Description:
With about 625 residues, the chain is of the alpha/beta class. Helix content is about 35%, strand content about 25%. An eight-stranded antiparallel sheet has the order 3-2-4-1-10-9-11-15, with helices on one face. It has a seven-stranded antiparallel sheet with strand order 5-6-7-8-12-13-14.
Amino acid sequence: MCGIVGYIGNREAYPIILNGLKRLEYRGYDSAGIALYDGTNIQMCKTKGKVSDLESKVTSDISTAGKLGIGHTRWATHGIPNDVNSHPHYSMSGDLVIIHNGIIENYASIKKELIKRGYIFKSETDTEVLVNLIEDIKIKEKVKLGKAVQIALNQVIGAYAIAVFDRNKPDEIVVAKLGSPLAIGIGEDEFFVASDATPFIEFTNNAIYLEDEEMAIIRLGREVRVRKIKGDQLVDPYVQELQLNLEQIEKGGYEHFMLKEIYEQPTVIKDTYRGRLLADQGIIKLGGLEDYIQKFVNANRIIIVACGTSWHAGLVAEYIFEDWLRIPVEVEYASEFRYRNPIITDKDVVIAISQSGETADTLAAIKLAKQQGAFVYGVCNVVGSTISRETHSGTYTHAGPEIGVASTKAFTTQITVLTMIALKLAKVKGTISKSNYMMHLRELELIPSCVEEALRSDEKIKAIAEVFKDASNFLYLGRGYNFPVALEGALKLKEISYIHAEGYPAAEMKHGPIALIDDQMPVVVIAVNSNHYEKVVSNIEEIKARQGKIIAVVTEGDTSVKELADYIMEVPKTSENLSPLVTTIPLQLLSYHIAVMLGRNVDQPRNLAKSVTVE
Ligand code: F6R
């Protein structure tokens, strides 16, 4: 959470930082701030609210001239979102200024010591403690800023991506990373710092991604110097060539990123299997998997760890893996797994699923699994992310940047990758028949056109959204492969419309939730062609008998459910195993339209942030 941006060079820093903050706002948006060095002094402006609020405030409050600056968009951890707690933070002397993404866990004890030494604090943040600790060390030990940062970071416990500069030395920015991402853009006589590469993509394609426990001194006229925070040795940084382009991170004519990302799914699913799925030849090529096939095939158990929507993709994978691969699968919330002393052995394979590749709980679960000897495979979207580096191997989804906070295209591309993995392994293990294998290769290849077709119902779904937008509760029901889709549909509605929604296995309804059903309760039922079709129809009858309002996702040409449901959303026919890839589309659109009709901030729903880098 939180986005950080910094610039040092020959251009005006303000527009670069402001634009960068807008691109990073998905990471947190309860307050924002900027500090610029104007040639003599630091100009600082901070505010509760969004980057647009900062923009309105800046021009009246400060001079925006300056070629060095840092900015921050916040998702509050310590201290409520207000102007004072917003970053950047000054040290007590006013010489140092810092931005921070992460949490300093032992800040309270450090603060106590600093107070004893005469330090006065204005905010409630852990970050102000850190900048004063750096200042204290700098003065006490008579060291330069870089050294002071290093000594300070050896005393703190927690997570951080920081950028700090000294107004008495305005030719350098010192940055450091542990647990939160930090990229350094390398231009010609200019440098950029940011939580991801989007703020500087139009200026340079060259970036260094700091590893955990690394820091860098970025000084004008010199190469970036990277060193270990512990141990002090210099590191030869790997300068990565970025593949990102500007178009990918803009809305491209859509009203919201979420809608753009929903509509991108046919393309990004294809991008995810392109060059990997050769249906005609009966081949699946996954570079990251080739060397580890036997590990999977001989595994006692596959454990999937993830959070949120990625966890739902993991649930879909459980059905697929167990059906085709015949290896027991457990799907764990990373946040529970990491703290419950799980039994893990070197015969287990762990799959970690994460769009951002930065989710703190998933990362901690990976570390735990590795410590206990398990082989860990990653399914990430963000190239070079911490999880993609922490796992032994993995496969990227090729969804492109997902900027809307509600995950959409990440979900379907994760399922695409997991399906390919399962098919490939099942073929090697001999647990899938040749005809079933070939059929699913071809079916997977057809998914993008099925998703396209599902998207054509958009206007019809919008009309359904209009009918139900004022409901205060929704129930989502599905069975088998579409039970996780019910959970995902409910999550999408909750997070962007703030309407309470619950997902349930349809048969489980009788064990409690059925008590909720009356003529005010919309029930979204996924009732596509499947082995459970008749059973789901019975569940629909049960809802109908209690006057619930039925919105059913059905296979094109369906007649039975059509007669029972109040509203239907049609999707094309697919194999049951792949059906989540299409049944999820109408649910994404339904949530989107309801949220828009209710005037919600669809791309930046309240209290949320795109990557959850704190536990
Ligand atoms: C929901 C959503 C979250 C994320 C979760 C995990 O729409 O976006 O539930 O799925 O925070 O994030 P990643 O996949 O980045 O690990």
